[in-house]
Amino acid sequence: MFSKNVGNFDRLVRVLVGTALLVAFFLMPDAPYRLALLIGIIPLVTGLLGTCGLYRLVGVSTCSMKR
Q1: Are the beta carbons of 63 and 4 closer than 8 angstroms?
Q2: Cα 58 to chain center, whole Å?
Q3: So where are the chain's domains?
Q4: Is the pTM higher than 0.85?
Q5: Are 3 and 59 in contact (CB under 8 A)?
Q6: Which is deepest, 2, 8, 16, 51, by most CB within 10 Å?
Q7: What per-residue confidence (pLDDT) applies to 67?
Q8: Which residues have C-beta within 8 Å of that of residue 24, sequence separation ≥ 6?
């Protein structure tokens, strides 16, 4: 479907940040900026899939080169 353009370290960071933001969303029900924490869905999904649309638009890839 989509070619991978997100490297392993980048994927790990995205999954951790996305998960942390979504956990914060559920743990802070009264925070005034609670809905902004849903932005964590984007790094979580791109980290799990290994592809990033923004990287594709600007022509960036953090995947290591295959020889």
Answers
A1: yes
A2: 17
A3: 8-58
A4: yes
A5: no
A6: 51
A7: 52
A8: 37, 40
